[in-house]
Amino acid sequence: MSELNPVKVRAVVLASRSAGEADKLLTLYTYELGKVRARAVSAGRTTAKLLGATEPFVESELMVFLRPGSSWGKITGGRLLRCYPTLYTGWTATTEASELCELLDRLTPDQQSSPDKFELICQALAQVAREPHPAIRWAFALRLLVLAGFGLRLDGCLRCGPAETALWLAPAVGGLLCAVHAGRGDKRMLVSPAVQERLRWLATIPWEAIRSKTWSPEATGFLEQLIDQCLTPHLTRPLRSAQFRMQLA
After folding, report:
1. In terms of domains, do 111 and 136 share one?
2. Model's pTM, two decimal places?
3. What domain range includes position 36?
């Protein structure tokens, strides 16, 4: 791709940090190119036209130069398309949104286009902005695993098919196993038929319906552990945003 040909992209800003006196280093997820890292020159100045368009969690239209063979681009212009002020006004919303963005960053290679991932992060951020809820994060994680090629089979034992019994969650092999096939695994969790149904529900139900279910403190705690176990095999280190969330809790 020639440096003389900038690309116009729709992008969600996954992360933004200062560089030098006034520049910003951005991690973007774009509809056209997938994940892109880029420098926004002078975007950190209070009078910069790109100040709002380069803040975390916003959706922007940006002009990006990408040199062939380089993992970094340069942003030369753009405009803000959509922002969610409520994502900046409370610790719960901010940490939930940060965790969604960090997870997408960690499970996605650079410059591999996936419009489905772009739509997924846009939808999830809009839901968190409306009202934070742990189930939004769980649903996002399960759906992102599918799009990243790490989806879990949740309709029965991987070896012997559907079962109306408790099964062991085995993310490393891609789903659930019965007692006969699970063997011994210290980190595996036994999942009841009711929880199996909840997982399938989270992976497929429309976003607007997620808050319709009642989640007891016990169920919430168990699902937190369960989703964490689903993600752990695919992360080289814990999510910093998740660690911060747990400290707040």
Report:
1. yes
2. 0.93
3. 7-83
Asked if the structure places residue 2 within a domain, the reply is no
CA angle 17, 118, 103 (to 5 degrees): 55
pLDDT tens track, the chain, 249 positions? 444 578 999 999 999 999 988 999 999 999 999 999 999 999 999 888 999 999 999 999 999 998 887 779 999 899 999 999 999 999 999 999 999 999 999 999 999 999 999 999 999 999 999 999 999 999 999 999 999 999 999 999 999 999 889 999 999 889 999 988 987 765 678 999 999 999 999 999 999 898 888 888 998 999 999 999 999 999 989 999 999 888 887
Number of domains forming the structure of the chain: 2
Q: Collapse the DSSP code of 80 into the 3-class scheme (helix H, G, I; strand E, B; otherwise coil) and give the result.
A: strand
CA distances from 238 to 93, 141, 242 (A): 20, 14, 8
Nearest to 104 by CA among 147, 64, 136: 147
In a domain, 147, yes or no: yes
Task: Give the position of tokens 């969790």.
Answer: 189
Going by their DSSP bridges, the two strands 167-170 and 153-157 should be labelled as unpaired
